[in-house]
Design a protein that fits this description.
Helix content is 40%, strand content 18%. With 302 residues, it is α/β, with parallel strands linked by helices. Strands 8-9-10-11-13-12 form a 6-stranded mixed sheet. The relative contact order is 0.11. The structure holds manganese (II) ion.
């Protein structure tokens, strides 16, 4: 059995949608496959999406399982079920481990700096002429993944390929033209209902470079104000992950990132990296930043 899976702590809608849709793709090709995750599902996977008919599969480990890794390529962060010597394919859009996997897997390593892994999966369906096997539900999942990971196409990481894939999926889903704002408002409601859990479910702990702390949290909302009012809760929650942290609060209404840092020195370091204006305890950026773009930038100027 081919087991399509992702990260070990939490997964977002891109990982969730891409695991399910790639497993469906393999099954359609006659390759028995399951989409499995033991991680927490973060707030980008809304109740509406969880209630669709298509879901993750139950997992019964077997000797001959082989693993396809989606939306993560740093092997320290793979789902706990993964056996490293049984990995047969990696599909991701995070930087840092391209060379390692290219050497190990050749063309079965597809790591591209593109808006969303779901876009890569959509293109694989097209390449094999299997677009008709994308159901309405799968289209909704993939569209949400593209919206979330490209920040409604405003993130620099967005490529024309993401936009094209989204337009084609829109036709399959036959959804309303307001799908993007409906989706992001639902995510914001989920986050505000339980901010502590939302923070915990989207916090990455990774040693990157001197410019960045090891703890980087991220939230995407339509309107930032309620969250900026909760500074104390943010501080109490993220201090549990490490002494130094930043929170990248992405506000899509204004198309800006707001960076909250654990201390002023760190906030000034981040300002050097991303520019923008410091206001009390946060940095107001001139545009939206994704965590993976911040990390890429910090690595480049190291
Ligand atoms: Mn992703």
């Amino acid at each position: 059995m081919k087991i399509v899976t992702s990260g070990n702590k939490y997964i977002d809608i891109d990982a969730y949608a891409s695991c399910i849709s790639y497993s469906n793709f393999l099954n359609q090709k006659g390759i028995p496959s399951k989409a499995v995750s033991t991680a927490k599902l973060n707030e980008s996977i809304t109740k509406k999406l969880l209630n669709l008919n298509i879901k993750l599969d139950k997992y019964m480990p077997a000797e001959d399982d082989e693993f396809v890794i989606i939306d993560v390529s740093n092997k320290n962060y793979f789902d706990n079920i993964v056996k490293e010597n049984k990995i047969i394919e990696v599909i991701d859009h995070h930087t840092g481990y391209e060379e390692y996997w290219k050497e190990k897997l050749g063309e079965k390593s597809k790591i591209e700096f593109i808006g969303s892994v779901a876009t890569i999966i959509f293109e694989l369906y097209e390449k094999e002429n299997l677009q008709e096997k994308i159901t309405k539900d799968i289209a909704y999942l993939m569209m949400s993944a593209i919206l979330d990971n490209t920040l409604n196409f405003k993130a620099k990481i967005t490529t024309p390929r993401d936009i094209t894939a989204y337009k084609k999926l829109e036709k399959i889903a036959k959804c309303s033209k307001n799908y993007a704002s409906e989706y992001f408002l639902e995510c914001q409601q989920n986050i505000e209902e339980d901010l502590k859990t939302a923070l915990e479910n989207d916090t990455k702990t990774e040693i990157i470079s001197g410019k960045l702390p090891n703890v980087i949290s991220q939230l995407t909302v339509w309107d930032k104000n309620n969250i900026l009012d909760s500074k104390q809760l943010i501080d109490d929650t993220l201090k549990n992950f490490g002494n130094e942290y930043i929170l990248n609060l992405i506000c899509l209404k204004e198309e800006k990132s707001y960076i909250i840092a654990s201390n002023d020195l760190l906030l000034h370091n981040i300002q050097e990296l991303l520019k923008g204006t410091i206001n009390e305890f946060y940095l107001e950026c001139e545009n939206v930043w994704l965590r993976k773009e911040i990390i890429k930038r910090a690595r480049e100027i190291r």
